[in-house]
Design a protein that fits this description.
Elements lengths: L35 H6 L8 H23 L3 H25 L3 H16 L1 H8 L2
Helix pairs in contact: 2-3, 2-4, 3-4
Length: 130
C-alpha cells in the first residue's frame, strides 16, 4: 500500500494593511522624550511657552489623581469603569497639549473635565481616603 503524499500549505501573502503602532500601557509614569531632530527642526511657537507646561502639568496631575482614586475607592470594582473613562479623556488631553500646545480649547476641555471629576461623589469619597 502506498503512502499518501503530504499536502503543503499555500504560501502566506504579505498583509496589505499597515501595522498599528504599539500602545504604551497607561500606567507608565515616565514619558518618552521626542527625538532631538524633531525638537531642533520645529520652529518655536509662542503658544509653547510656560503656559503649555503649566497646562500639561495640570492635566498630568488630574490624570494621576484619577488613577490614585481608582486604587483608594472603597468599592474599586464599581468605580473603575467611571474612572477609566476620565483617565482616558485626561490622557488624550495630555497628548493634545503636547502636540498643539496651550490653546483655548485645551484649557476649556481641561477645566470641564476637572469640574466633572471634582463634582462626582465617588471621586470625593476616594480622595478623602488618599
Amino acid at each position: 500500500m502506498a503512502k499518501k503524499a503530504q499536502k503543503r500549505s499555500a504560501p502566506k501573502k504579505a498583509s496589505t494593511k499597515a501595522a498599528k503602532p504599539a500602545r504604551r500601557p497607561a500606567g507608565t509614569g515616565a514619558k518618552a522624550a521626542p527625538p532631538a531632530a524633531k525638537r531642533a527642526s520645529a520652529p518655536a511657537r509662542p503658544e509653547t511657552s510656560s503656559h503649555s507646561a503649566g497646562l500639561g502639568e495640570r492635566a498630568e496631575r488630574l490624570r494621576e489623581e484619577i488613577i490614585r482614586s481608582k486604587l483608594t475607592h472603597p468599592s474599586p470594582w464599581s468605580y473603575a469603569a467611571k474612572a477609566r473613562g476620565w483617565g482616558d479623556r485626561a490622557q488624550v488631553l495630555i497628548e493634545l497639549i503636547v502636540v498643539q500646545g496651550h490653546t483655548p480649547a485645551a484649557l476649556r476641555t481641561l477645566e470641564e473635565l476637572h469640574a466633572e471629576v471634582e463634582r462626582d461623589r465617588d471621586f470625593q469619597e476616594a480622595r478623602r481616603l488618599f
